[in-house]
C-alpha cells in the first residue's frame, strides 16, 4: 500500500470565540448597561417586611419570554406550552430562533432592545459577552436554594464546582447545563482478531505492552494478506500516548499542578510523548498519514483507518458507537427482553468484515504510572435570566420554579414528560427502574415533534445514569481514567490568541513526530508559544481559576 504523508488537516478545535467587549441596547428605553443584581426588598417585593423577598406575587399571571434548545419552531399553542402555562399560571412566549443561527439571531434581537426572560446561552464562551453587555441578571445563590433546589443539588452532587463556570468576575449570572454522558472517556479499541493472529491474548496495561503490540500490528502481518500494509495506530490512537504522560495537547485542556492550572500542550512530559511517537513514525509503526486523521468523511465518529484494516487500534468516537449486538438486553415496547442493536461504527465495520472482533482496554500506564485519555467537556451551555425580568417582583423566582420542575424534578416521569410530552400519548415506560421508555406510534418517527409541542423548555442536568446502555459503559470501565479539563470556558485572552497558538502547537508537534525538527525543538516551541500569547493566557487562566474555583 502507498504510504505517503497526507495533507495536513487541523486538529480538533475547542469551543468558539469570546468577545472582550460587546455594545448594544439592553433596554428599549436605556442604551447604557446597568448593574443587574436582584436585590431583596427592592426589586422582588413591594413589602419590606416580607419573609421571602423573592417570592412570586400571589395570583399574578406572568408573561415570560423563553429561549430554548429547538430543532423546529415551537407552536405558541403547543400542547406542552399550554400544559405548563396552566400548571404555573403563566404565559410562555418561546422565541423561535433557528438552531444553526441561534446566537446571531439572538444578538439581533438583543441589539433591538429585546431581552428574553429565560436566556439560553448556546455557546458557553459567550457568557462574559452577555454579562458585559448588561443583558443578564446577576443571580444570588440564595434564590437557587429556594426556587431551584433540585437543579442546584443534582449539579453539585454530580458535577461539583460547575456552578462556578456561570460566574463572571466572581458574580453568578447563569446555571450550567451539564452533560451526563460525558463522564465517559474516549473508547480504546483494539482489533482482537489481529491480536490473536500475532499471539497476544490480553489488552495492554502499560505503555511498554502497548508499544510491543503496535510493533506486532505493523510488522507481523496481522490481517494475513501477505502485504506490508498495516500500522499500529494513527492520529486518534496517539491520544493514549499523550495521556500516558498526563496530557491532551490536541485540545486546550488544562490540568492542575501544585494548585495551579497548567496547559497540557506545553508540559515537559509532552516532549517524552513526542519522542516516542517520532520513534514509532521512523520505524513504520505510526501511520505516516496520521496528519490527515482517521476519518475520511461521512459520520464523524467512524475511524476509516481502523474499520478498513489500516491500523489495529483507535480511540475515536464515543462508547455507544462501538456497541455490539447483545452487549446488553433491554425491554421492547411490549415488555419482552431483546438484545440491543449494534452502534453505528460496528454496523459499518461488520458490513465490511462480518468476522471482525474487537476488544476494549484501559489507557496504558506510562513510565510514571500515569494513565488517561481525553474525556469530553461536560459543560454544554448556560441558562441565565434576562435583565428585564428582575423588574417584575417575583418573576425571576417563577422562572426558576418552572426550570427546576421541568429539568430536575426527582420523579423521572416528570422529567421525561418535560422532554417528550404526555405519558400514554407520546411515550410510555418500558422499564421505569432503569428509566427506559419508548415513543408511541407516529411520534417514534417524528424527530421534531418535541420542539413543535414545546417539550423543549428545560435544561440538561447531570442525573446519575441508569439506562442499560450506560450500565454497560460503567461495566467496561469507560468512566475510569478520563482526563477532563479543569477549564471549560474560554477567557478573552484565550480567545484572542487561540488560532495563532493552535497553529504554532500543531506545526511543532507534526515537525517533531515526522523528524523535520529534532526532539529538542520542543523547548524552542514552548518559548515561541509563550511569546506568542501563551504566557498571557496562562496568567489570565490562573487569575480566573483562583477566583472561581471551589
Polypeptide structure, described:
It contains 17 helices and 18 strands. With 550 residues, it is an alpha+beta fold. Helix 4 packs across helix 5. The termini are far apart. Residues 1-35 and 39-46 have low confidence and may be disordered.
- N-to-C terminal Cα separation, in Å? 54 Å
Level of helix content? 25-40%
Strand coverage percent = 5-15%
Poorly predicted runs: 1-35, 39-46
Number of strands: 18
> On the 0-100 scale, what is the average pLDDT?
90
Gyration radius over CA: 26 Å
Helical segment count? 17
Order of the strands making up the biggest sheet: 3-15-6
**Major beta sheet, specifics?**
3 strands, antiparallel
Which of globular, elongated, flat, extended, rod-shaped describes the shape? globular
Give the structural class. Answer: alpha+beta
Topology:
Blueprint: E1 62-66, H1 79-88, E2 90-94, H2 102-111, E3 118-121, H3 127-133, H4 141-147, H5 149-158, E4 167-168, E5 171-172, E6 174-178, E7 189-191, H6 192-197, H7 207-219, H8 238-243, E8 254-257, E9 260-263, H9 269-282, H10 304-307, E10 313-314, E11 329-331, E12 337-339, H11 344-352, E13 358-360, E14 373-374, E15 379-385, H12 395-408, H13 412-420, E16 427-431, E17 436-439, H14 449-453, H15 468-475, E18 482-483, H16 492-514, H17 521-548
Parallel strand pairs: 1-2, 14-18
Antiparallel strand pairs: 3-15, 4-5, 6-15, 7-10, 7-13, 8-9, 11-12, 16-17
Amino acid at each position: 500500500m502507498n504510504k505517503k504523508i497526507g495533507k495536513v488537516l487541523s486538529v480538533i478545535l475547542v469551543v468558539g470565540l469570546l468577545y472582550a467587549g460587546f455594545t448594544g441596547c439592553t433596554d428599549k428605553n436605556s442604551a447604557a448597561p446597568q448593574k443587574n443584581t436582584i436585590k431583596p426588598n427592592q426589586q422582588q417585593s413591594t413589602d419590606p417586611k416580607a419573609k421571602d423577598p423573592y417570592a412570586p406575587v400571589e395570583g399574578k399571571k406572568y408573561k415570560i419570554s423563553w429561549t430554548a434548545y429547538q430543532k423546529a419552531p415551537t407552536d405558541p399553542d403547543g400542547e406542552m406550552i399550554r400544559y405548563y402555562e396552566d400548571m404555573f399560571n403563566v404565559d410562555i412566549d418561546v422565541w423561535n430562533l433557528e438552531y444553526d443561527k441561534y446566537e446571531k439571531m439572538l444578538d439581533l434581537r438583543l441589539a433591538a432592545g429585546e431581552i428574553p426572560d429565560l436566556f439560553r446561552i448556546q455557546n458557553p464562551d459567550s457568557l462574559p459577552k452577555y454579562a458585559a453587555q448588561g443583558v443578564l441578571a446577576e443571580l444570588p445563590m440564595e434564590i437557587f436554594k429556594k426556587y431551584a433546589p433540585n437543579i442546584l443539588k443534582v449539579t453539585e452532587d454530580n458535577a461539583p464546582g460547575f456552578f462556578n463556570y456561570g460566574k463572571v468576575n466572581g458574580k453568578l449570572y447563569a446555571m450550567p447545563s451539564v452533560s451526563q454522558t460525558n463522564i465517559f472517556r474516549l473508547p480504546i479499541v483494539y482489533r482482537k482478531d489481529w491480536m490473536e493472529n500475532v499471539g497476544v491474548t490480553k489488552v495492554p496495561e502499560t505503555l511498554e505492552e502497548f508499544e510491543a503490540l503496535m510493533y506486532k500490528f505493523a510488522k507481523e502481518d496481522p490481517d494475513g494478506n501477505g502485504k506490508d500494509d498495516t500500522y499500529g495506530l494513527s492520529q486518534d490512537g496517539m491520544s493514549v500516548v499523550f495521556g500516558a504522560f498526563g496530557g491532551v495537547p490536541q485540545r486546550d485542556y488544562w490540568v492542575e499542578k501544585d494548585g495551579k492550572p497548567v496547559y497540557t500542550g506545553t508540559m515537559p512530559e509532552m516532549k517524552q510523548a513526542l519522542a516516542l511517537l517520532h520513534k514509532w513514525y521512523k520505524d513504520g509503526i505510526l501511520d505516516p498519514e496520521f496528519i490527515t486523521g482517521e476519518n475520511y468523511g461521512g459520520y464523524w465518529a467512524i475511524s476509516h483507518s481502523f474499520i478498513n484494516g489500516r491500523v489495529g487500534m483507535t480511540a475515536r468516537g464515543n462508547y455507544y458507537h462501538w456497541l455490539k449486538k447483545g452487549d446488553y438486553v433491554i425491554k421492547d415496547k411490549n415488555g419482552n427482553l431483546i438484545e440491543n442493536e449494534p452502534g453505528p461504527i460496528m454496523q459499518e465495520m461488520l458490513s465490511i468484515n462480518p468476522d471482525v472482533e474487537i476488544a476494549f482496554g484501559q489507557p496504558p500506564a506510562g513510565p510514571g504510572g500515569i494513565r488517561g485519555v481525553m474525556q469530553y467537556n461536560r459543560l454544554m451551555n448556560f441558562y441565565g435570566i434576562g435583565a428585564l425580568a428582575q423588574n417584575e417582583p417575583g418573576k425571576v423566582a417563577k422562572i426558576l420554579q418552572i426550570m427546576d420542575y421541568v429539568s430536575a424534578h426527582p420523579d423521572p416521569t416528570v422529567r421525561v414528560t418535560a422532554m417528550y410530552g404526555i405519558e400514554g400519548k407520546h411515550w410510555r415506560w418500558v422499564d421505569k427502574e432503569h428509566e427506559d421508555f419508548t415513543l408511541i406510534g407516529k411520534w417514534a418517527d417524528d424527530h421534531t415533534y418535541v420542539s413543535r409541542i414545546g417539550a423543549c423548555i428545560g435544561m440538561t442536568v447531570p442525573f446519575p445514569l441508569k439506562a442499560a446502555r450506560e450500565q454497560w459503559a460503567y461495566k467496561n470501565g469507560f468512566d475510569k481514567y478520563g482526563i477532563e479539563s479543569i477549564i471549560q470556558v474560554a477567557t478573552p485572552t484565550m480567545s484572542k490568541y487561540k488560532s495563532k497558538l493552535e497553529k504554532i502547537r500543531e506545526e511543532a508537534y507534526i515537525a517533531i513526530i515526522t523528524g523535520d525538527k529534532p526532539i529538542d525543538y520542543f523547548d524552542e516551541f514552548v518559548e515561541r508559544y509563550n511569546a506568542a500569547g501563551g504566557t498571557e493566557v496562562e496568567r489570565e487562566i490562573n487569575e480566573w481559576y483562583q477566583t472561581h474555583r471551589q
